[in-house]
Amino acid sequence: MTSNEMLSNAALAKQAVLYQGDRDFDALRTISHPDVELDFPYWPTGAKQFVGVDAMIDQMSVIRVFQTFKIDIVDIFDTGADTVIVEGRSHGTYKSGRPDYRNHYLFALSFREGRLTRWREFFNPLEAMKQNLGAPSN
Fold this sequence. Notes:
Blueprint: H1 3-6, H2 9-21, H3 25-30, E1 32-40, E2 48-51, H4 53-60, E3 66-78, E4 83-94, E5 101-112, E6 115-123, H5 125-130
Parallel strand pairs: 1-6
Antiparallel strand pairs: 1-2, 3-4, 4-5, 5-6
């Protein structure tokens, strides 16, 4: 049994979101399954999915453009199954001096045997579009 397997899924979900917000991608990698799925159902250019821990971290690394970035956890909803819902709010200040970034999220995080297997991230796409992440799909 790994040390991750001893933690509840809710505790692992909290860790995962905080690791992302802290931009601690090495720590996030340690709790992720190699074939983790990253889903963005509300991506401004249409739903996106990425498979594999390297692809997930590559996509999340976009937050390195921030001088400061933080995700505050508002609430955690433990379903009692493999999936935990985490509500969070972000705040970031850009290195380039662009206006601050703020967004509101729901993360649906799934686990198996103490490893993150799916990260589904719902966010306000209008806020993301303001930050040039893309245009709406037709």
